[in-house]
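Same chain as my last thread, 106 residues:
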Amino acid sequence: ILLLRPEAPVTSEEIREETDRQGFAAARIRAFLALGEQFPDFQCKLQIVTLGPQWRDPKDDKIVVPCLWGESSHRYLDLRTLEGLWYPASGYCFAVTRIAPRRRRS
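reply #2:
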């Protein structure tokens, strides 16, 4: 897993387009949670998001994605809405994995 941190505020769609262009895909939930387990200090310094798994929040019908974040003594798994901008100053970064190139059939 790699963590991509935008230099300026971006939308979820802009992040998706950029990761696609660079040959990355959003981290799957199992790998995303393993990242938090293996490197707990990361989520106390950053808000780590994956745009892979998405759910519809039954309270307000918005699409949400998982986010790892924390404080000095606590770590959290939360859901964040896809709407609006992701601000680097707020510590947002995105967990991605490299897409393996497809093999050509002979």
